[in-house]
Amino acid sequence: MRFVRFFTMAHSYLIVGGSSDIALELGKNLLANGHKLTLLARDVQRTQHLVEQGATLIEGDALDKEAVQQAVDAAKESGDGALSGVAHLVGSLVLRPPHALSLDAFNEVLHTNLSSAFLTLSVASKTMLRSGGGRLVFTSSVAASQGLLNHEAMAAAKGGIEAMVRSAAATYGQRHIRVNAVAPGLTETRMAEPILRSEASREAAISMIPRKLINQPAEIASSMQWLLCDAPDNMTGQVLHLDGGMANARG
Questions:
Q1: pTM above threshold 0.85
Q2: Quick check: 14 and 86 in contact, CB under 8 A?
Q3: For the chain, how many structural domains are there in total?
């Protein structure tokens, strides 16, 4: 009997916002599959276990162009001159009605979410153009497509990301760069603690979800991993709604 062994080719990936709960899950998965991993993160302590497993850490802010460029260059070098994919997992959660939200606070939400996403797109795509292509995955939210209470700032920021993804998919469609996004509903992360802390607010949130379930970080991470590693090459400009049916179903 002849045995055939299949090998998975290792690729190089970068996670911008590498210390978030979802990023840690995604990084663990990528390393477990034998890929090279670079993290751009501010919270160094949270990423140490991934560094011990072989990840390269660049300490810095996703709104610092020099830090983003350094991270992209490090990921490219670890991939022998090619950057296979980038996941952008930088975000903030501010839930206030417009009359209680200052313009400065609104702009900060846009800057943290949308401007950092654009910077990642700008720097990473330039490198990918030189090395033959790659994949970019951004993080949106169910708030980008659904009118949710007190989500005006988040809706504007994440809606901007979705529009940017579609436009970038058109811009780079013939240059072998695929650009997609995931749009989770409420997910059990540190960022969502203010909503999930009380039983009343948790139940109110769950009641809006047809599946009556809150996302787990591993679910979002596995979906992003699929877009980075396994999705068809012809898939671009798409938004995966991981919201328990909120966008398209009624429970």
A1: yes
A2: yes
A3: 1
